[in-house]
UniProtKB/TrEMBL annotation:
Cited SUPFAM superfamilies: Glycerol-3-phosphate (1)-acyltransferase
Name the record gives this protein: Unannotated protein
InterPro entries, alphabetized: Plipid/glycerol_acylTrfase
BP GO annotations: phosphatidic acid biosynthetic process
Domain Phospholipid/glycerol acyltransferase: 119-265
Keyword match Membrane: yes
PANTHER family associated with the record: 1-ACYL-SN-GLYCEROL-3-PHOSPHATE ACYLTRANSFERASE
GO MF annotations, alphabetized: 1-acylglycerol-3-phosphate O-acyltransferase activity
Residues annotated as transmembrane: 12-36, 56-74
Keywords: Acyltransferase, Membrane, Transferase, Transmembrane, Transmembrane helix
Keyword rRNA-binding attached: no
Pfam family, one: Acyltransferase
Length: 327
């Protein structure tokens, strides 16, 4: 649904209907899912937890839509400060809902020590929650306003669609044959980035899993065999794409660079993976944010090697953290 005048009414109706139905049918689905979980000997009740989060998410979306409509009604739809506050409240609400339903606990390292920006963040992508989690980290722990390079499919989320277009984000068409236009869109998104803002991109381009990792590595062997040899040791992260990152760096030549990895969301790249994880344990996530002065970031062809080195180092750190969490 490319046209917003079709997409938005359809998705808003779907989300509001989901919120109302899940709440109205609570006396029905709750005992049924309790019995299903118990019948499978899943005493952490993952289906109940997952559906409970779906209920809370649907109502957060509904409230966000109502708030966005209110800003439009009072002539403040273009007020970025008001929309940023709405984004911040919505993000906190989603993280809080995850805490209540699936036991999410986020431990953050390094985010509170960031100085003045502007910043460009290069983040690991492993789960459905990465965008929300990273926004929560940068807004609450770093006091920064994030701008995002997001895949266009996320426009199916009504709040992200409406408020995300009011704020300086860019919805990337990953299937576009016009790469130059997409890179131009990324550059325009970063223009005017202030000392209190951070432009966020996920260089892997998609959520990591073993199948995607192998497929991307195979393509890399054809185009850049030397990079493939270096990156074939990755176990958790995937080979990063460089074009979008390079466009961001060119758009904000004075920006500091931030790398961010996390451990704890691994395997949660699909709804099925989330339920399987919830059957085992609560969600405990460790986030590490590292600031790189721009002078230490290589340029030109050497930047690719620098980025690959960062990704290999983060992959190792994720592996160490996962091993520690499993003890």
């Amino acid at each position: 649904m490319e046209r917003s005048w079709i997409r938005r009414p359809v998705m808003v109706l779907g989300v509001v209907s989901m919120a109302v139905l899940l709440l109205a049918l609570l006396p029905l689905w709750l005992p049924v899912l309790l019995l299903v979980d118990a019948g499978r000997m899943n005493w952490r009740f993952p289906l109940v937890r997952f559906t409970a989060f779906g209920l809370m998410w649907a109502w957060l979306e509904t409230l966000g839509i109502v708030a966005a409509a209110f800003l439009w009604a009072v002539g403040q739809s273009r007020n970025q400060n008001a929309n940023f506050v709405l984004q911040k409240l919505w993000t906190r609400g989603v993280v809080g809902a995850l805490g209540l339903t699936v036991g999410l606990h986020i431990e953050v390292e390094g985010a509170d020590s960031l100085g003045d920006g502007p910043f460009i963040a290069l983040c690991r992508h492993a789960s459905l929650a990465d965008s929300v989690m990273s926004a929560w980290v940068f807004m609450t722990a770093s006091g920064l306003r994030p701008r995002y390079v997001l895949k266009k499919e996320l426009k199916l989320d009504p709040c992200l669609d409406v408020v995300g277009h009011r704020l300086p984000n860019y919805f990337l068409d990953r299937s576009s044959s016009n790469l130059a236009a997409e890179l131009q869109g990324i550059e325009q998104m970063a223009q005017g980035l202030s000392a209190q803002e951070i432009a966020v991109i996920f260089p892997e381009g998609t959520r990591a899993n073993d199948v995607k990792r192998a497929r991307i590595l195979e393509r890399l062997r054809e185009r850049a065999p030397e990079r493939a040899v270096k990156l074939e040791k990755l176990k958790y992260l995937m080979a990063p794409k460089t074009a979008g990152v390079t466009a961001l760096l060119a758009a904000v030549p004075n920006a500091k660079v931030v790398t961010m990895w996390h451990a704890g969301f691994d395997g949660m790249d699909s709804f099925r993976g989330i339920v399987q994880h919830l059957a085992k344990s609560a969600v405990r996530v460790h986030v590490k944010v590292t600031e790189h002065q721009r002078a230490t970031v290589a340029t030109g062809e050497a930047f690719v090697a620098w980025l690959d080195e960062q990704w290999c180092a983060m992959d190792h750190a994720v592996g160490v953290r996962i091993s520690e969490q499993s003890l």
